[in-house]
Design goal:
The chain has helices spanning 20-32, 37-50, 55-72, 75-91, 95-109, 115-134, 138-154, 161-174, 178-195, 198-214, 218-235, 238-254, 258-274, 278-295, 298-315, 318-334, 338-359, 361-400, 405-477, 482-509, 512-517, 519-533, 551-572, 610-621, and strands at residues 537-543, 576-583, 587-594, 625-631, 634-642. It is flat, with a radius of gyration of 31 Å. Helices cover 76% and strands 6% of the residues. Strand 1 (537-543), helix 23 and strand 2 form a beta-alpha-beta unit. It has 24 helices and 5 strands. The longest helix has 73 residues, at 405-477. It is an alpha+beta fold.
Length: 643
């Protein structure tokens, strides 16, 4: 089960854990101080330090700060107080109220150009990103986090960039993009270790563990969570304690140790409930219900899941709601409540479709490509404007200075050379723009294949298996005559065939062996499957020491070999095919040779078919070379991809 992620929008002192006695002493000291801007700042500081341990008292401090800041007309202090109060509303999932206060904080921060006001603007931008993320508007969230990270970098505040990277990792984990999720999580951890700040280090551990949950590397999740939990207990921070117990529960749930999983999930629920975190509380309840369901405690599962359902609906937590509904469908079915199960299934379909539209990774990638394309188009327009200006100067000189034709000739010659250079630059920019578009299409196709494969296998496959389970139970409870029994058995066989065919389609769209074991094992498995099918004989060879490539590169190379073997099957009429994968020091080589009838290689350059054009586009995307020779004795394709 994918672990959904909470948004981290707090910064700096917002997660410093002080002792209660020191809070009281400092509060008494602040109360006795003069009513000036320093007192406003002190109230804000203390509220930030205690907001996780005692959010109610933190709100009281912020209300005093807001009143005093208004009396003093202190825009910066009032902006900070509004931001912190909105942050608490955010964690209570009161997103509309939080946004209204963030808007006020943003307007107040704009009243000054001082460095601290600029940093406050960056903070509010980062908070807006958190709102977008919580509302599943991931395209807007990505842009806002990137903008906030850029502002913090300009201010020399590199440690605060950790928060943006942490949440970008969370977004890509939700989207199923493990590579980007791990990339941002590792950057978070790297910066956190450089700071030596235990709060940031704790958050980086959470980011890494969440990313590895998405990658289904649960042994790594366990190691990171145990290390993080020790540090969290040393700090006495309820949120990280709850988070790491939630992660450990996920590990034991995956290992089918449900009693251990429930122990950790219940500790997480208690921690999150104490500090009134609606999102995390709902998620912990869903995990508890799921473990009870897996354990076979259907009645307890339904009870806790229905509580989670009410909370998710109230707080509009669609991501958690989808998981709760999926568990309730199965739980009610096992309890024999078919009508309730069907009702939950209908609601699940609606919620799932809504989330799918919002979490489609193509939206995020299209946004990034659009941003890069706009930059290229702006540069292209500058070049065109420059070219037009020089043309005008040339015409003006030609019309007004007739007496110095020789000089104009040399000037014109020089201008022509510059014009050729400008046109070449324009051509290069056009080519770069086309390459960006091609990259987006290829990346979007593969990401969509992966998402569809996962939806087919985990969603529809699970539902079909549930139907089969229901039919099997029905068989033992219903008396059928011989004819109907035969029809019933044939229906079960057809259902088995449907499940097998669905798994085959999902495997072809995104082979699990490719993700887990790499290109060598994936190609070997694919060639073995063709060999067993009897289409033709396939000789697979691997040379050199295998090296794991970037996941995107491995997927593209796998698709290329798939397409070449498909061509050999459809058109070449080959009986034997050689597939060779060679790992060299600086490049990867792929050779596919068959003994078929061959074809005219020149026709592939202007063919309207998608096969060869897709192969060339993918090779170009990887900055590789493609060499094709074909004749009556067969076809040989050689591909070289630099590492």
């Amino acid at each position: 089960m994918k672990l959904l992620l909470a948004v981290w929008i707090l910064l700096g002192v917002a997660e410093v854990y002080a002792q209660p006695a020191s809070w009281e002493a400092r509060e008494a000291q602040i109360s006795k101080s003069s009513n000036d801007t320093t007192k406003v700042n002190d109230w804000n500081q203390l509220a930030a330090e205690i907001q996780f341990e005692d959010p109610t008292h933190a709100i009281s401090l912020l209300q005093q700060s807001i009143i005093l800041a208004k009396q003093l007309n202190y825009a910066y202090g009032l902006s900070v107080a509004y931001t912190q109060r909105a942050t608490l509303l955010f964690y209570e999932a009161k997103l509309d109220s939080a946004k209204r206060l963030f808007d006020l904080a943003h307007a107040l921060a704009l009243q000054s150009n001082s460095p601290k006001a600029q940093r406050q603007l960056a903070l509010v931008t980062q908070r807006y990103a958190g709102l977008y993320q919580q509302n599943q508007k991931y395209d807007s969230a990505v842009v806002a986090y990137q903008s906030a990270a850029e502002q913090f970098s300009k201010l020399g505040d590199n440690t605060t960039v950790i928060v943006c990277y942490y949440n970008l990792s969370a977004i890509y984990t939700i989207l199923g993009d493990t590579a980007n999720a791990l990339q941002y999580a590792r950057q978070t951890n790297q910066i956190a270790l450089q700071t030596g700040d235990s709060t940031y280090i704790l958050r980086s551990y959470i980011a890494l563990a969440d990313a590895y949950v998405g990658a289904k590397k649960f042994d790594v999740v366990k190691d990171i969570s145990e290390k993080g939990l020790r540090l969290a207990h040393a700090q006495k921070g309820l949120f990280p304690i709850g988070k790491f117990h939630l992660l450990l529960g996920t590990y034991f749930d995956y290992k089918a140790h449900y009693d251990s999983a429930l122990k950790h999930f219940n500790i997480a629920l208690q921690a999150f409930s104490t500090i009134n975190l609606g999102y995390e509380t709902s998620l912990a309840m869903q995990h508890i219900g799921h473990s009870h369901l897996q354990k076979g405690d259907t009645k307890q599962a339904i009870e806790i899941l229905q509580q989670a359902l009410t909370k998710c609906r109230t707080l509009r937590l669609d991501q958690v709601l989808r998981l709760v509904l999926a568990d309730l469908v199965l739980a009610q079915e096992r309890a024999g409540n078919i009508k309730e199960s069907l009702q939950y299934l209908k609601e699940y379909v609606v919620v799932n479709d809504s989330i799918t539209q919002r979490t489609n990774r193509k939206v995020v990638y299209d946004l990034e490509v659009k941003y890069q394309t706009q930059k290229k188009e702006a540069q292209l327009q500058i070049q065109k404007n420059e070219l037009s200006r020089k043309n005008f100067i040339n015409l003006l000189l030609a019309g007004s200075v007739v007496s110095i034709l020789i000089i104009l000739f040399f000037m014109y010659y020089s201008f022509k050379q510059r014009r050729l250079l400008q046109e070449k630059r324009i051509s290069n920019l056009e080519a770069e723009k086309q390459l960006l578009a091609s990259e987006a299409v290829i990346k979007g196709q593969e990401e969509e294949r992966g998402r569809l494969a996962k939806d087919l296998h985990d969603g529809l496959g699970g539902l079909l298996s549930g139907v089969k389970f229901s039919f099997a139970n029905m068989k033992s409870n219903v008396v059928l005559d011989a004819a109907n029994a035969q029809v019933f058995e044939r229906s079960l066989d057809m259902l088995d065939n449907s499940i097998a065919e669905l798994r085959r389609v999902a495997h072809n769209m995104m082979p699990e062996v490719l993700v887990k074991f790499g290109l060598h094992e994936a190609l070997k498995s694919y060639c073995d499957s063709i060999q067993q099918s009897g289409i033709f004989k396939v000789d697979f060879q691997s040379l050199g020491n295998e090296v794991r490539l970037a996941s995107n590169t491995e997927i593209i190379l796998y698709r290329i070999v798939q397409e070449l073997l498909n061509n050999a099957s459809k058109y070449a009429k080959a009986s034997t095919v050689l597939v060779q994968l060679a790992f060299h020091e600086n490049e990867i080589g792929i050779t596919v040779e068959d003994n078929g009838i061959g074809f005219d290689v020149a026709k592939t350059n202007y063919s309207t078919g998608a096969g060869w054009s897709n192969i060339r586009a993918r090779v170009d995307y990887l900055k590789g070379t493609l060499d094709v020779t074909s004749g009556t004795n067969g076809t040989s394709v050689h591909i070289h991809i630099p590492q």
